[in-house]
Structure formats: structure tokens, C-alpha cells
Amino acid sequence: MAEDLNEELYKALIENKTALADQWLLMREKRPNSIYSVDADEKYEQLLRKQNALTTKTIASSLLEDKKEYHENQEQWVSIVAQSRADLGTPIYEVLEAVHRFRTVIMDFLDKYVAAQEEAISKQHILQWNHSIHSAMDFLIQEFSKKYYQITRERMKAQYDLIAELGAPVIPIGDTTAVVPLIGDIDTERAKRIMETVPAKCIEKQVNKICIDLSGVPMVDTMVAQQIYSIIQTLSLLGIQTALSGIRPEVAMTSVQLGIDLKGIDTFNTLQQALKKMGR
């Protein structure tokens, strides 16, 4: 008996998925640059309808005794919606608001469904349905949040790696010679990235001579000077001959004050001088 009632509610939800989507979409408000805005492009409304149909299917399948369909729908929904919202740059709070609004739509439908069949449905069934639907909605939110976080973290890491690549490019100018033009301020985090990436890139590109050009760095303080010296020492241990160009008077003064010995390192006022010395 209970399974039959669950099956009937499942079918009722599926049969009314279009009406449920209509009601949900009517709850939209105008908000700038949002897929959920009432004036969003038609293609986004069609996307929302398609994904909302899967939401209804997922919630409905949570009522079935056999949970296989529910788990498959839930995994599919999380993957599709999280990827879609990440691609569109939708803030997570907007997604959670939309899910909350659809929860109210589903619960309104349930209230009307129960009212229409009041004599045939016990309080126990009503409590069970409420529990199943709310649990399914809560689990969707939880799993969506995890997946969305995972996607955005992976993208942030990719951007971080790209910034690291662009922040200290090792530019080959010959078979075994390269230049590292440093441009802009160098803080602790950037200095750490340079330390991590430059030696590895030199090995990868089979470089044995390199010139680090500082002419684009507006200020070289104590920390920067120490980090550059550490990079040069690391490269030296790897058998890579290192030269410095763009050495301005204030840079030289900072190095002297820190007691950093640059006697064993070729230093030049300009990159052109360094390349000429390196035979380029």
C-alpha cells in the first residue's frame, strides 16, 4: 500500500513537471547578469526548464523504494548544474536561492495533492513524504556545494599556475640560453612562485645559461634581494650559469647593505649588455 502511494506521488510529480517549472520561473525577479533573472535571454530560460525537469525527476525518485534511480539522477543533477553554473560564473548564493524557491513549489504541490486525496492518505504518509522531499533537497544542496567548490578550486589553481607562468617566463633565445624578464612588484608570494618555477623550467628547457632581468621591477627591497640571491644559488647548484641585468644603483646598494656577495655573478646595467656577453 505504502509503495503504491509513493509510486502515485512519483508519477504525479513527473506528469506535472512542466507546470512546476512554470510556477518556479514565475518567481524570478529582475537581477543584473544572472541566469535566474526574469529578463534573462531565452536560451537561459530553456536551459533552466531542462535542468528543472531533472530536479523534479530527482526529487520524485527519492520517494521510490528502489533508490538506484534516485542516486543516478542525483549524481547527474549535481554534475550538470554545478558545471553549468561554474561556466556561467553564477554565485553560489543565487543557486541556493533558486533551489529554495523550487522547494516551496514542490511543497505547495504536495499540500494540494494531499488535500485532493485526504481520506486515502494517512498522516504517516504525509510525514514520510515531507521527510523524503526535504532530505533529497538538502542532499542536492550539499552535493552541489561540494562539486561547485571542487570545480572553482580547480579553475583557481589553473589560473594560479598561469599567473606563475606569466609572472616569471623563461624565454629561450638559443638552444641553451634563456632570459627571465621580471616585471612589476615582487612580493613574498610572487617570489616564492619564481623560486618554485624558474629552476624547473630551466631543466625542462635544457637551459645552462640564463639572464634574470630586473629592469622592470620598480623596487628591490630586502626580501626581494634575498629571494633573487637564493634563486641564483639554486640555479648554480643545477649547473646553470646566471647573470643579472637591469641592476640600478639602489639595487646595488641594497645588496651591499644586506651583505649579499654578487662577486661571482655577472651583473649588467642592461639586458642588451648581458646578452652580448653571453654571446647572443
Automatic annotation (TrEMBL):
Residues 167-278 form the STAS domain. CDD domains: STAS_RsbR_RsbS_like. Keywords: Phosphoprotein. InterPro entries: Bact_StressResp_Reg, STAS_dom, STAS_dom_sf. PROSITE patterns: STAS (PS50801). Pfam families: STAS. Coiled coil: none annotated. PANTHER family: RSBT ANTAGONIST PROTEIN RSBS-RELATED, RSBT CO-ANTAGONIST PROTEIN RSBRC. This is STAS domain-containing protein.
